[in-house]
Amino acid sequence: MLRRRVVFLLFEDIEIVDLAGPLDVFGYADRWLQINGRLNEPGYEIVLVGLRAGPIKTAGGMEIVAPQGFGDELGEIDTLVVPGSPWIERACAEPLLIDWLQKTAPRVRRLVSVCTGAFLLARAGLLENRFVTTHWMYCDRLATLHPSLRIDRDRIFVRDGHVYTSGGITAGIDLALSLVEEDLGREAPRFIAGLMVVFLRRPGGQNQFSIFLQSEAPNRPDIRELQAYILANPAEDHSVERLAARLNMSPRNFARHFQAEAGMTPAKFVEKARVETARCKLEQTHLLLEAIAAETGFGTPERMQRAFQRLLNVGPQDYRARFQSTAIRGRTPP
């Protein structure tokens, strides 16, 4: 069987899930080809390479072994994957690593970063003026260090030409499933997602986590539960009166406590939750704007348009044109 060589870059303090998640996706894809007798199609050969061959300590303290070092001949590379690290600045300060990336990246078909791995690609000058993403907690730092980058803080992953960047940690699995879909079609990632017990297409972007975590009520479990309910049920009536009634509070008292805990009004939290849900549907479905507006609680496309302009500075139609999944775009609407 032919092989697409997928090279994972290893370095000290690497985040193990950034490596193991995507690696398993490609490994299961290779197994799927064999199970289905598609032996004439290119599978995947996984290669781990480090600064030098030998053990490498991960961020969690586990040691993994890089069978090959930078001085070894790797042959033709199809996809180069650069995982992240909680202490990515240490890797960015390693000149041999940056030099290897600069020399290797131009000869790969796909260049991929997971989580804070985008910092390494940016440090090597490989992301200039590109649309990218990274873990939502690190977006501000990436923007400060590399102002030419066009950072989408909320996408699970972003493709710009042959360069792919993913959001935080497990988002690397989402990106790897998408790469397998590009190569093998939809059935392979569907099988792999089921095997790994993950979403084939995650319902929402990083924003669903950043909205909740950045505005999570630290001292009120009842308000935290209410926020989670809003995120899970954006189409319901979430007027201040209804929300206050759920907590047996007066509207005025509820609004005051919510603002103090979440740092935003109940109405603003609801609007952000609805926009995030609508974004997901625009990216992953052929639903008409009227249907999306109804399903996400906006009621009308006009109200959804105004909310998108307020929060994203782009309308829903333009957002779909820019970010709809290539797999969805190529599929005939039902």
From TrEMBL:
Keyword terms: DNA-binding, Transcription, Transcription regulation
InterPro entries per record: Class_I_gatase-like, DJ-1/PfpI, Homeodomain-like_sf, HTH_AraC, HTH_AraC-typ_CS, INH-QAR
PROSITE patterns in the cross-refs: HTH_ARAC_FAMILY_1, HTH_ARAC_FAMILY_2
Pfam families (UniProt xref): DJ-1_PfpI, HTH_18
CDD domains: GATase1_AraC_1
Keyword Ribonucleoprotein recorded: no
SMART domains reported in the protein's UniProt record: HTH_ARAC (SM00342)
Residue ranges constituting the HTH araC/xylS-type domain according to the UniProt record: 224-322
SUPFAM superfamilies: Class I glutamine amidotransferase-like, Homeodomain-like
Signal peptide: none
One annotated GO molecular function: sequence-specific DNA binding
Superkingdom: Bacteria
Name recorded for this polypeptide: AraC family transcriptional regulator
Organism this protein belongs to: Methylocystis bryophila
